Amino acid sequence: MHELSIAYNIVNIASTAAAEAGVDEISAVHLRIGVLAGVVADALRFSFAIAAEGTPLAKAELLIEEVPVVVFCPHCNAEQTLPNPRLFRCPRCNQPCGQIIHGRELELVALETP
Amino acid sequence: MNYEAKRLIEIRQGVLSKNDQLAAELRQRFHTFGVFVVNLLSSPGAGKTSLLEATMRTMLSEYRVAALVGDLATDNDARRLARSGGLVRQIQTGDMCHLEADIVARHLEGWNLAEIDLLFIENVGNLVCPAGYDLGEAARVVLLSTTEGEDKPLKYPATFATADAVLLTKMDLAGPVEFDQELAEANIRAINPRAPIIATSARRAGGLEEWIAWLRTQMNRRSATPPDAV
Fold it and tell me: What is the pTM of this model?
C-alpha cells in the first residue's frame, strides 16, 4: 500500500505548480499510469482524498489514463502493445519479448482549474 | 465575478521523479567508487536474509561486502547478517512498505564507499510496492521460494518483469512441498523472457554456486562499463 506516498508526491508536485501558476484551486489532475506501475487506481483515489485535504487540490478529481505494456520485439524490429500484461510475447510473431518500452509510467500530465 | 476560462496547467513530470533523480545520483556515486549494488526483492519469508547471510559469508574472502537491510520493525535480520562478518546496517522503515532512494542515501552516511565492492540492499518483503522505486542499483534480483507456489510471477508481473535475475530459493524443500520447477520457470519466462533463472539453496552445500558465479560475472562486466538506468 504505497499509494498514500504516491498521493503525497502528486499533491506536492501539483501544489508547487499551482502556486507557480498563481492558481488557488485545482479541479482535476490528469495522470498516466502504466499497467506495470504497481499502482491500484482505487487505492490511489482513496489516498489522494486524504493527501489533498487542506490543499488547493482538496476538491480535485483524478483523471487516470491507463498505459498498456509496449515491448520492443527484436524479431519484428518493432514496438508491440501486449494484449495481456502477463504474457510477454509478441502479439504478431509470438516470440518472447522482454524489453519494456511503456507500461511503467507514473506521470502527472496536467492540472485543470475550475 | 470571475469569468476567466478553465485553464490547463501542463506538468508532464514523473510522480516519482524526485526518487528517480536521487537514484540516478546514487548510481553515479556507486559507479565512481566501484560499488556493485544489488537490490533484493521478494515476498516476506522467501529467504532473502538466509540467502544474503550465506552469500556474504562465501564472498567475504574475495570481496568487501556490505548490506543495507530494510525491515518494518525489528533488527533481527541485521543481527543475523552481522554474523557473516560483513558490514551491515539496518533500515527500519516503520510503516513504509518499500525502500526509496533517499532512505538508502541517508543510511550510507559514514560508510566509505571506496572500501566496498559489493553492496546488497535487502528491500522490504513485498512484491508490489518496491517495484516502482529505483534505488540506484546495478541489478534488481527477485526471489521466488519453493514454498510460495509457482504462480507468483503471474500475480506480480510488475516486479518479475523488471528483474535482472530471478532466484528460486529453498530448493532443498522443493521435494517435500512438491514444487513444480518447470511450471515456475515457465511462469517466470512468460513475464520476463530475458532474466536468468537461478536455482539456489542457502542450506545445501554448493547451493549458491551458480548465483555467486552470476554475481561475479556481473561485477566484472559492470566495472568496465558506464552506469546505465534501470
Answer: 0.91
